[in-house]
């Protein structure tokens, strides 16, 4: 079992952090003060721990839900009333969320919490650490974590308040998205000279130089969305910084799936920045949970994956998205559960014994209580058989087997809870290569002897035995990104940039462009009266 403390230096701290949720300006009360703590290198590291614990907190929940359920990548319908949850998930699919949506609020709460906790740690260490390289690196790491959180807020909400001064408890109005973009860019550029140049165990779970460069590349690739100005040559330059470091490589086809296994970690050649998870971790604040198996594995396949719990299995993909997986030789196909199911020997059918009525709740025969055994067959389409208004497929075996399931973050049979050991990548080397390819296709200058085609084939050569492509278009690249980063919470970002977010898929017909950003949550506006609502949403 991986230990988060091995990578992040997060011993149990006997402090209590009461951080701000919706309002970055709410006071943070703590026993952690420069007068009593920290006083040495070990304690300096401990002081940074709450920032990483806070970031891990909702990364696999509200971040994933807002970035994936709002796209054609994933859908989470109700099944027999389960997972209705006050329309939270339905709204993500229909694009009819409001400022009171719990998922939209959770994303704001979480990113604000990371920013507030970062401000506190930066303030304490600025006062208590002696000047020198150690201080410069530690502060730069914290500022990069804060920049990542601001990136998530800017990407999701557009204009957001900038608050970087711990102890300033006044309400802050929103800053223009372009101003926030420029702040993040400046923070990352200032951090790079002081960030650790190494990768691997020594920096795993903490940002290094190439974390900042990769995030800058992501910013520049989306700069026209964020600021109205294209920055494709800057994207190419940021990608080149990562590439030229020589620290990373595309995982070969034989180990692609292993990147997402429960025993993944710093040995993965592609991970530029990943979020470590450990079900046994006990850290200050909300210990993040990585529940992919709970949501993604059919409940009939508990034995197949050796799970100590019965998964709920509400999440699946849509046929429109799965259509991207059309190459029989592509290793990425193996992350999906589709069609007739077998145990891991590939021969023994996965079977369920129920009743005829239990199999099909709409069965009208007089023998509905008779035993019925069938082989599990996952079907591609989501059909709201029970109640369209309630987004309900039904409460029978047919309903629970609707939708192809993704098990990229492979179920963790070692965990005694629903939590998993799988670390979750945020930035990968293959993303850098595909970002550079896209920037070139959109008009950026080719460098280092690369072309858009050669860069895409660098990734594809490690994913499929099919012959390399001889040409590439933006549409080809969009589909390749869909295959490569499935379930990694980048699809909303991609859809918006490619002009596809207002499209139709599943049951969604809403084409409102203002929904490219989420509303400012009601509870955030209550705590911070200076916040105004985003355009398009009720003021």
TrEMBL record:
InterPro entries, per database record: SusD-like_N (IPR033985), SusD_RagB_dom (IPR012944), TPR-like_helical_dom_sf (IPR011990)
Q: Does the keyword Membrane apply?
A: yes
Short name of one Pfam family for this protein? SusD_RagB
Its GO CC terms are: cell outer membrane
- Location in the cell: Cell outer membrane
* Record-annotated SusD-like N-terminal domain positions: 84-221
Q: Which residues form the RagB/SusD domain?
A: 395-537
Which keywords label this protein?
A: Cell outer membrane, Membrane, Signal
Sequence similarity:
Belongs to the SusD family.
Protein name (Swiss-Prot/TrEMBL) = RagB/SusD family nutrient uptake outer membrane protein
